[in-house]
Amino acid sequence: MNSGMDTHPRVLVSALLDGELSPQETALVERHLAGCPSCRELLEDYRVIATSTASLATPPVAADLRTRINHRLDAAARSGLLQPWFRPRSYRLALGAAAGVVLVLGLWIFRQDNTPDRGAHPKVAQTTTESAPPAPAARAADGVSIADAPRNEPEVAAGANGAPDHRGGSAQPQGRVVYSEVPERQDSVAPGKREEVLREEATGMTGKDASGPAAPKAVGLERATEASGAVAPAAPPTASFKVAPLLGTTRGRILLFEFPDRVISLSEDGTLSLSSGQYACTVRAGLPGADREVARLFGLASQEGARDTGSRSRAGSQNASIAGAITLQDERGSTLRATGGEIAREIDTATALEMDARLRTLMRDRYIALLESRCGAVPQAVRSR
Amino acid sequence: MIARARQGDREAFDRLVESHLAHVWAVVWRIVRHREDAEDVVQEVFLAAFQGLPGYRGESRLSTWLHRIAVTRALNHLDRSEERMRRMSESLEEESADGLKHADVRAAGPASAPPSPLQALEARDLARRLAECLGRLPAPWRVILALRDVEAHSYEEIAGLVGVALGTVRSRLARARLALRQCVAGETS
């Protein structure tokens, strides 16, 4: 804290302005100010800067920012990056439409079955009840709640398949971004608590096993460590990869691999998100050559391939897991191509198999290490693939 | 509305976005001071908020909760950016004693200092130059200035948010103000 006290106490003058000096320091600085015109001027300039900075105008919010936020939410939901309970609005519309189709179909069947008795008995209400089992879908369509919508299948499947269970009684699923609350008066919050929250915020995780691999760098942690003289924790390989930006910041098309025990979302910019059971993590590969491999996958997904003519039978069970698993989406999450679907542009099974193999290679050679650097050990079900 | 949004009601969340967008934008802008980057961060904030909403227990106001997400996301953004990381490392090097002496010499001026050029500026000019100079400041300094002079956080709060020691907040804030003063006044000479 010499802070130039031998000449002019610049740092202390600044802190005096903010009322952040002890009584002793305040008395010291005020004595200096009484005999130092330049420091008095400095204090006044600090005051002008502080008040002027506070009153600087903020540019208006872009007119389309809300729309972009909505698009990002929808895209993130479609690519499996949001909580399982969340579904994009189009999903809700689809549920509503499905419920409507079921209702109309039920009514039609009822009318076919009961034509001779039409008008004889008030059966419509009864038949409607019988033909409307998807009550949650109907509620979702009304906008009341989608809490009853189907859960993320990989979470269920992971348990069923014996994949490692990371729940461990934690209130929050591992690997998800959870923002801890702070009391209204933030000055009553212990700094340690804030740093803990900040670390969670910076890593995009909570509930992470502290004994896991090197934690990603939180904001300012290196600087804090440097200031305190503590030994810095082992750092992730920041020189060789760049931690992915958080949700919704991917660019380009998205390849979605929805397997029973895991969902992998790969963006054209190299951002990969893995969700398997309670494990969820997003990383971006920045290694040389990563782009070429990712581009190859997207190239395969885009090419006009031969229709399935026997390849399904050749590969047997492997095909069964691929069928319906791969979807190519645009930036907004709209499906462009898919395997096993009934859309016009279908990824043929042979191509899907090659894509699956290439994805496994990419995972093994590149992404698993990145995922584990950032979020801890990936589930065995993913590692063993 | 919050309860409905927590249940995954997208329309309710849309209304929350509408209500809080201007505030979140302002918070992020003051730290990032780059339109495209700030817009990206704001989108991240609301995505993260939607994801974290089930964990929001209503112990603080939603605006406070969002404010915190916005600040930390903006800080993360600055940390992520390679360019800003480079600037950050340079600025931290400048925080050596030599750097402080250098700043002191400039700030001290002659014993009988003339009226401050900064104070002589018209309000409009001052605001314009301040805005320009804030954009040029090293990110760690700008962040601390924003957290103190705009967000009115205490030094202790800033230390917790940024992850530095209390003394670092104090010295970094002083250096930021000195640098800003030099930058703004320098354009007048």
N-to-C CA distance of chain A: 57 Å
CATH architecture level-2 label of the largest domain in chain B: Orthogonal Bundle
Tell me the major beta sheet of chain A.
6 strands, antiparallel
Largest interface (C-beta under 8 Å)? A-B, 92 and 101 residues
User: Oligomerization state of this entry?
Assistant: heterodimer
Q: Which fold name is given in CATH as the topology of the largest domain in chain B?
A: Arc Repressor Mutant, subunit A
User: CATH superfamily membership of the largest domain in chain B, which one?
Assistant: Winged helix-like DNA-binding domain superfamily/Winged helix DNA-binding domain
| Class based on secondary structure composition and strand pairing of chain B | mainly alpha
Low-confidence stretches of chain B: 82-113
Query: How many helical stretches of chain B?
Result: 11
Structure, described:
The complex is a heterodimer of chains A (385) and B (189). Chain A has 385 residues and is an alpha+beta fold. Chain A has 4 domains: 10-54, no CATH class; 85-150, no CATH class; 154-228, no CATH class; 254-383, no CATH class. In chain A, 45% of the residues lie in helices and 8% in strands. Chain A has a 6-stranded antiparallel beta sheet. Chain A is elongated. Residues 1-5, 115-248 and 306-315 of chain A have low confidence and may be disordered. With 189 residues, chain B is mainly alpha-helical. Chain B has 2 domains: 2-80, Orthogonal Bundle (Rna Polymerase Sigma Factor, Chain: A); 83-186, Arc Repressor Mutant, subunit A (Orthogonal Bundle). Helices cover 78% and strands 0% of the residues of chain B. Chain B has 11 helices and no strands. In chain B, α2 packs across α4, α9 (139-150) packs across α11 (166-186) and α10 packs across α11. The termini of chain B are far apart. In chain B, 52% of the residues are buried. The interface between A and B is large, with 92 and 101 residues.
